[in-house]
Amino acid sequence: MNIKNELESLPFEKSNMQFCNVEIDPKKVRAIMINEVVPADPKQDFYGDDDAAYLQTTIPLFQKAGIHVNSISDILNLGVYITNAVKVPKTEYTVSNVLIEGSLPFLEKELSLFPNVKVIMLMGDVAKKAFNIISKKSAKKNAVPGVATYKLRSSEIYYAGIRIMPSYIMTGQNILIEKSKFEMAAEDISVMVNLIQQ
């Protein structure tokens, strides 16, 4: 299945939207990592160029977690699919609620494509906010409590039988600067991989 083709078939406004252009067997995916927002240049996204900017922080996170990966294919082969909550590049420093809400139908559809998911990692506050809006529609409440991520990391949060793991942003300059968040995100990835291999 091609994820981009699946999402482009939805009857919603798609101008400037970027979708993961990847062929994948949805049944093999055991974990989904939701990053915050697509990059301005699609070639810098997870499924873009081999040396894409998003992979330059993501691959080291997996390696720090003790997982031997060198490419997005290696990550997919683990059963881990990575996507972005917001499907249009941000134009300001922060990501507005309008951008998040415009992308929600696509993220919701994307999450529904994978029947065997055991873990969803929310990489940053935008991913957490987007997922909570989705969960509130069906469960009438937020899946993830509105407290700081460091307070939630040791909690076991479940939504529809899936373990939800709030963590830290995995792309962009912030992660290169904030070493403690890099370390914690790597620890969370290690937990996630252990959970899906059980």
TrEMBL record:
<dbReference type="Pfam" id="PF03167">
    <property type="entry name" value="UDG"/>
</dbReference>
<dbReference type="InterPro" id="IPR036895">
    <property type="entry name" value="Uracil-DNA_glycosylase-like_sf"/>
</dbReference>
<dbReference type="InterPro" id="IPR005122">
    <property type="entry name" value="Uracil-DNA_glycosylase-like"/>
</dbReference>
<protein>
    <submittedName>
        <fullName>Uracil-DNA glycosylase</fullName>
    </submittedName>
</protein>
<feature type="domain" description="Uracil-DNA glycosylase-like">
    <location>
        <begin position="74"/>
        <end position="150"/>
    </location>
</feature>
